[in-house]
Design a protein that fits this description.
The complex is a heterodimer of chains A (about 230) and B (about 325). Chain A is an all-alpha fold and about 230 residues long. Chain A has one domain: Phosphate transport system protein phou homolog 2, domain 2 (Methane Monooxygenase Hydroxylase, Chain G, domain 1), CATH 1.20.58.220. Chain A is built from 6 helices and no strands. In chain A, helix 1 packs antiparallel against helix 2, helix 2 packs antiparallel against helix 3 and helix 3 runs antiparallel to helix 6. Chain B is of the alpha/beta class. Chain B has a single domain, classed as Rossmann fold (3-Layer(aba) Sandwich), CATH 3.40.50.300. Chain B has 11 helices and 10 strands. In chain B, a hairpin with a 5-residue loop joins strand 9 and strand 10. The N and C termini of chain B lie far apart (about 45 Å). Classes of the chains: A mainly alpha (about 230), B alpha/beta (about 325). At the A-B interface, helix 3 of A face helix 9, helix 10 and helix 11 of B.
Chain lengths: ~230, ~325
Amino acid sequence: MPVEARIHFQEELSALELQALGGLDMVGDALERTLEAVLHHDIELASYVIADDDRIDGRYLEVRQGIMSLLARQAPVATDLRLIAALLDLIRSVERMGDQCVNMSKLVSLVGREPPVHPEIIARIERMGRQAISQVQQCKQAFARRDVELAEDLVRQDDEIDRCNREIFALALETGDDPDAREWGMTMMMMARHIERVGDNAVDIGEQTAFVVTGEFREFTDASHPEVIPPAVG
Amino acid sequence: MRQVTEPPESSSESSAGESAARARRPPAAEPADGRGVGPGTAPAVEGVKPRESHADAAAVFEVENLSVRYAGKLAVRDANFAIDERRITALIGASGCGKSTFIRSLNRMNDLIPSASVEGSVRYHGQDLYASEVDPVQVRKRIGMVFQKPNPFPKSIYDNIAFGPRVLGMKGDMDEMVERALRRGALWEEAKDRLKQNAFGMSGGQQQRLCIARALATDPDVILMDEPASALDPISTGRIEDLMFELKDRVSIVIVTHNMQQAARVSDMTAFFTVVVDDTGHRHGEVVEYNETEKVFTNPSDERTEAYVTGKVG
């Protein structure tokens, strides 16, 4: 009869994965608050997000240290090795998404006390933000369940963000002659750009999910080769 | 009497054997589902390729349907694979999986056990190793072996090395032969001033390198190693592993090891053996997976290999 072995190592690895995936929950909270701050022009909440990013950075360092320790002590191979490599990538994406929330929060205070809000642009920012929050949850779920199909669906989800991003660009161009309105429009374009990056990071985590499962790394979409259609899940 | 001779350079027999061996090998790092980073797939990542495709290497051994029995009881069943020339092949698997039995069948060491019988074929450079006209002594000259426990003869360092060449009646300057073997065994600097001293006065690691040098003295083109470092400290183990890297320019090495990190560190190819229990409760060994070492330790094809290399199943 086969004997279960290396139980302690497996427990450590599982704990490390939970810790890394917990980082995505922290990002989800930060995104919620950032969106709230942007929509309601809440400068105080925005400064809270900026200060609170230290926790996400701390999580990044903890997980990274844990990975280094497991690599040094346990010499993981095969699926264990792939999981560890993927976690290193995942926690980096978490840290980047945290930074995008900080970038957005910093923009909140830049737009003045009572900015000339364009309702169509702000509606799209909200839609993008909600979509990004949902993608962060989805990439976490896909990774935790090793669900490649759910991971690949992130690309479809991300198209919504990309579409809104393009629309915001077009709307900002049409803002008119008022310098304040134009400045606000430009700021929202930057805001949209940061949300769009969060969506990309969620897709990256989806790609890492597929790597853990299949052992093959491939980009779901390749910006430098848009003509290459990614193969469907077989 | 036909003897196992120097490897033929271009006999039609061996090249036919090689192509047959290639056909049997698993495709190199080809994803099972045809997706991802692999030859011919569109979204390949530039610069990512498996180290040294084994499809390019010639086979030193071609093992076909090899089964070994001791006193009629099956020890290894139906092994089929080709071992590459001038590369290091690791045999891994739990105790009793037949890897030592297998490695012993590559230089007819099992002949020394009266109850052992071998079915199937082992071809060495295309030549049937078990053909009736093949002289097992000549086989062991070309295919040397190093064991788990260093086993120098109770003689001087010099005589240990000179033993094989003398028995085989090799011609030439014996002092030169001894020096060459000790140099290739990475032992010359430590041994040159004490050549006449008893080999038992050396440390365990030195004794093992002496045994490797002794095996090299008859100028073999294969060295079989059965857990050569399992009784050695990490420094001595490291020196044996360094030595293996140096030797593989000229010799093919097959190593049985229980230390999976050692297999991962030193080998190019890895064969994973497992224990199979039949209906009668009898246990025998089988080859589960034979692949590039990098593949075995990053993305093994068989879940039994996965469970073993990750240490989930002991």
